[in-house]
Description:
- The chain is an alpha/beta fold.
- It has a single domain, classed as Spore Coat Polysaccharide Biosynthesis Protein SpsA, Chain A (Alpha-Beta Complex), CATH 3.90.550.
- Helices cover 29% and strands 22% of the residues.
- It contains six helices and nine strands.
- It has helices at residues 36-44, 80-91, 112-123, 148-156, 163-167, 191-201; strands at residues 9-13, 30-31, 34-35, 50-54, 69-70, 97-102, 127-132, 135-144, 172-177.
- The strands form two sheets. The protein has a seven-stranded mixed beta sheet, sandwiched between helices. Strands 2-3 form a two-stranded antiparallel ribbon.
- A hairpin with a 2-residue loop joins strand 2 (30-31) and strand 3.
- Helix 2 packs antiparallel against helix 4 (148-156).
- The N and C termini lie far apart (40 Å).
Amino acid sequence: MNAQALTPACVILAGGLARRMGGGDKPLRPIGGRTILDHVIARIKPQCSALALNANGDPDRFAQWALPVIADSVEGFVGPLAGVLAGMDWAAPQSEWLLSVAADCPFLPLDLVSRLADAQMQNNADILVASSGAQAHPVIALWRVSLREDLRHALVVEQMRKIDLWTARYKVVHVEWPNEPVDPFFNANTPEDLAAAETFLK
Length: 202
């Protein structure tokens, strides 16, 4: 298999509580006349074989996007690893690889999958993590779906919550992107971030 053949299923992680934004669904906030989620989908959908949204609560609020909406299988808002596991369970019948991305990153790179896949082929890694400005972004990553039972055990039995603690058990490769003029992994966490994103778009 070559890197071009590694076309993963993708889950957009939207299961957070958005405390710094005052609650609600961050991906539904507008930037440049479109929701953040619209920007994420437009940039990531062409790179993947299938696309789903990981979100908890009433899925109907995302109905206009006509995507599968999958809730965390581990209850209690235990963090992004629960969303990754939900994505792995959904992807397992169709793909050996899962791409996870954050639902609040409107500027995701258009070469995200191709560069992560190239790194996988070169290193035979289990997990490929995006990085920019020497800062890793562990929720934006390519995962072997075969790790899902290990992840389930870590979440349910070990009650592990920190991504880095779990990924340290496997072969992880970080793939670096430039963070100028705009960090492609910029995420909108606060109202000030939304204003900055508007400026970037212009």
